[in-house]
Amino acid sequence: MDRLLGNYADLAERTADACRHPGSFLAEEWDDPAIWQRLIRGKVFELLSYNPPKRELNARLIRRFSYGGVQVELVAWDQPYGPPTEAYFLKPLETPPGVKLPAVAALHDHGGFKYYGKEKLTALPDEPEILREFKNRCYQGVSWATRLAKRGYGVLVPDIFLWGSRKMIAEEVPSDFTEALREKKPGSGAYIEAYHEFCRDYETIVAKSLFMAGTTWPGIMLYEDMRAIEYLASRGDVDRNRIACGGFSGGGEQTIYLAGLDSRISCAVCVCFMTTFAQTVRHNIQSHTWMFHLPHLAKLLDLPDLISLSGGIPVQVQYGQEDSLFADKGKQESHEKLRRIYEKIGRPERYEGRFYPGGHQFNIAMQDDAFMWFDRWLK
Q: Which CATH superfamily is domain 60-168+214-378 in?
């Protein structure tokens, strides 16, 4: 036991242990999945506390090109606050006119790497060395969204709040926080590394500001992901009845919320982001971003309960056996809980938990298993 709070460790650990998660479908009072889903989803949306002013999507195409064996469109849409979201939409080169493809929202990771978002999952010409190194570290050197599109999918890769096109512009925050960026050429490897250091340190200010303002980071994250699904469902070449989502690490967290709370999602793959809150409090809290924190959620649900709010859509969860960001006990407890929830819902075949040797990664073998899961349920 790590006892990260020292002589106050008992305060956090015992409080976490006392949470009985009354919103879990395993609680005795729940029998009807539809009623449970509707009521508990509403409570989670209250906790998310993000209800921005309405703004039209205003989706537009910026440019179209072919690369890596797929057609690539750079698209954009508006958000209520901040710059527009940019995204890549990928599909096979030889897609016949009028064909509606099964589609996947490919959700990028956190990775402590915010200068790029959508680029981390998409094969692009002239990739900078710092981006190639990141893909080698996390994805065994490949771009999984491009690989999936070649398999016959429409794949949308959007930037999320504080990444890529939605990143915080360092030059617009007080200069006291950005001294390390001065005299570095924007876009250079040195600038990007310094920018990531700035982002790491600045996350606390972002989170405190959002909480004090009456909203939450996960609330903004989910809103933007749901807006991406709105765009995806609007396309004439996408089958809106066959839309899935998936992602690794921070993309796995996005998958948990999006699959659990958006009924347009019909299948999901969550990679290396599943545990229990109690085990995270004990062992791994220092390893996680502020975007993981939704105040008071643990009084209602545990993390596996959240993705199960999908009501029993096909969900594959991939766990790294040596992934130090999540305690072994938390992974095993989550796997067992999801298995039991899907049994109680009456759809045990729609949950699959897979454990892989190695650490925090989404390697080619894991990607191939995820793709086969999508094939099984979307084709």
A: Alpha/Beta hydrolase fold, catalytic domain (3.40.50.1820)
